[in-house]
Design goal:
Strand content: 5-15%
Radius of gyration: 43 Å
Structural class: alpha/beta
Oligomer: single chain
CATH class of one domain: Alpha Beta
Strand order of the largest sheet: 1-5-4-3-2
Mean pLDDT: 79
């Protein structure tokens, strides 16, 4: 799992009373499975919460007459958050606090990314959450569960799928794999024969000598005739 759940101000006990502890755990696991490495987290988050039953009713509205909505709502437990940056935790806590002060919800769940700059001097994200929950009190006083997600880099699944497809294509086009020889069986050998220069046989020499002799005889017979004519 690439997420961690943290409970504050009795939120875990409230989930137990509502018989929702297992349900929340399963929802977080499903979100982790759907969103890990994806490029379109906002759309996929909405779809995953709909499939998990967190958007079935019309209680998502934060303020009556306004278009501010929670990401999910179930049994007076509201869910809000964003994976764009860790700092969204403050916006989510404020929105949930409004619903709690208006007696609309009993507790809230915040979904937020655990990824932060490696150069941050503020320590781990878990420690930072614990410190900020204390620092924000009493302004933020509702029971809340924080779910920290490490969803990997964007496009992870896309890159992985391309690499796998390229690997398969390479195996299909290249019959040589794992150092195997390109032969039908290990006993077969490929021998390259270099063509040899044509040798002059004895018969060939004799034929050339005969032709040379005949040529000389013809030339000798023609010469006297030319002289007589002269």
């Amino acid at each position: 799992m690439s997420f961690e759940i943290m409970h504050f101000r009795g939120a875990q006990d409230i989930l137990k009373e509502k018989n929702m502890k297992h349900e929340v755990q399963m929802t977080m696991e499903y979100l982790d499975e759907v969103l890990y490495g994806s490029n379109y987290k906002r759309e996929l988050l909405r779809q995953a919460l709909e499939e998990s039953g967190w958007r079935e009713n019309g209680d998502l509205t934060i303020l009556d007459g306004r278009r501010y909505n929670y990401k999910g709502f179930r049994k007076r437990v509201a869910m809000d958050g964003s994976f764009a940056s860790y700092e969204y935790i403050h916006d989510a806590l404020f929105r949930l606090q409004v619903g709690f002060d208006k007696k609309k919800i009993d507790m809230g769940i915040v979904l937020v990314t655990a990824q932060r700059s490696e150069k941050s001097p503020l320590g781990s994200t878990k420690n930072l959450v614990e410190q900020e929950i204390e620092l924000l009190h009493p302004t933020i006083s509702l029971p809340v569960t924080i779910a920290l997600f490490d969803l990997g880099k964007r496009g992870f699944y896309v890159d992985e799928a391309k690499a796998e497809a390229g690997k398969k294509q390479g195996e299909e086009t290249n019959p040589i794999a794992d150092g195997q020889a390109q032969t039908d069986s290990p006993d077969e050998k490929v021998v390259f024969i270099k063509p040899k220069a044509e040798k002059q046989t004895r018969k060939g020499k004799e034929k050339r000598a005969v032709r040379k002799k005949e040529t000389g005889t013809k030339a000798a017979s023609v010469k006297p005739i030319k002289e007589a004519a002269a």
